[in-house]
Amino acid sequence: MASENSKRRPKGRMMPVAAKVVIAGGFGAGKTTLVSAVSESRPLHTEETLTNQGVGIDDLSGVDKKSTTTVAMDFGRITISSHYVLYLFGTPGQKRFHFMWDELAYGALGAVVLADTRRLDDAFPSIDYFERLNIPFIVAVNCFDGAHEYDLTEVKLALQLGDDVPVLLCDARERESCKQVLITVVEHAMETHTGGRHTSAPAGQH
Amino acid sequence: MSGDQEPPAGRMIDDAAGPMVRPYVMTGGRLVASSQLDLITQVVTTDEAGTNRSVLGPEQSAIIHAASEPISVAELATHLDLPPATVRVLLGDLLEEGLVLTQEPQPEADVHDLQLYKAVLNGLREL
Question: Is ipTM strictly over 0.85?
Answer without folding.
Answer: no
